[in-house]
Design a protein that fits this description.
By secondary structure, this protein is mostly helical. The protein folds into two domains: about 55 residues; about 140 residues, no CATH class. It has eight helices and no strands. α5 runs antiparallel to α6 and α6 runs antiparallel to α7.
């Protein structure tokens, strides 16, 4: 279905991050959720092409297919910065807002994920500190070819990745493994769709760093220090 023909509420449920676009543009995806996007844009006097482009850019995030195992460190690092560091900041800011709204409106329900907003805020704080360490210390070292000197920072980053994994476990506990309850409103649905995208992104982010960048597989021109006796 063409985006312009889709109800705004359906887009909010199906395209993670779209609620941030709607909020910025003043489009109502809750009470006005049944309104087709094209009509909503017309009623607000917005630019159709610009609005659709912003929404389509969100769906493009999931269309990756590159094999990063042979890419140079610098190329992989730039990808991590643009695809994950920048996106996580956008995601968490919006997810905290959505979770706070759900708790505010539905906090009396026994299936409401009470405490989720605070947990996401804690995750955002920890992840921000982690990403800044990478951006300011580790990544510049790797880009400069100083892999031998990066052993300590890499060890710290791996440990913090384990902490992020534990935080995701608690997120699953708070949301009943991201299971939507019956009668969930559009905001609740948008929240869980966004959470699923964030979880998938964070896991892929950690995979690219732990299993490719930190292992040195992204720099094929760097000679191995292994003597070969181990069979590796």
């Amino acid at each position: 279905m063409n985006l312009l023909d889709m109800p705004v509420g359906q887009i909010a449920r199906q395209i993670p991050g779209s609620t941030a676009v709607f909020n910025a543009l003043g489009l109502d995806y809750c009470c006005g959720g049944k309104t087709p996007l094209g009509l909503a844009i017309h009623e607000k006097g917005l630019d159709t092409t610009e609005t659709v482009n912003r929404l389509e850019s969100l769906t493009a995030r999931t269309s990756e297919g590159k094999d990063w195992s042979a890419a140079p460190d610098a190329e992989l690092i730039d990808h991590l910065l643009n695809r994950y560091h920048r996106v996580h900041r956008e995601q968490l800011n919006e997810l905290v807002r959505l979770a706070s709204r759900v708790e505010q409106v539905h906090g009396a329900r026994p299936d409401c994920p009470v405490g989720l907003a605070q947990h996401l805020a804690d995750m955002a704080r920890e992840l921000e500190a982690h990403m800044q360490k990478e951006e300011q210390i580790l990544f510049p070292m790797l880009k400069a070819g100083q892999r031998a000197m990066a052993t300590g920072p890499i060890k710290v980053m791996r440990h913090e990745h384990d902490d992020h994994a534990h935080a995701l476990e608690l997120l699953n506990e708070l949301t009943n493994n991201l299971t939507l309850p019956k009668g969930a409103c559009n905001t609740w649905r948008a929240l869980f769709a966004g959470l699923q995208a964030f979880v998938d992104d964070l896991r892929q982010h950690i995979h690219l760093e732990n299993n490719i960048l930190f292992e040195g597989k992204a720099t094929p021109q760097t000679p191995s220090l292994c003597c070969g006796a181990c069979g590796g």
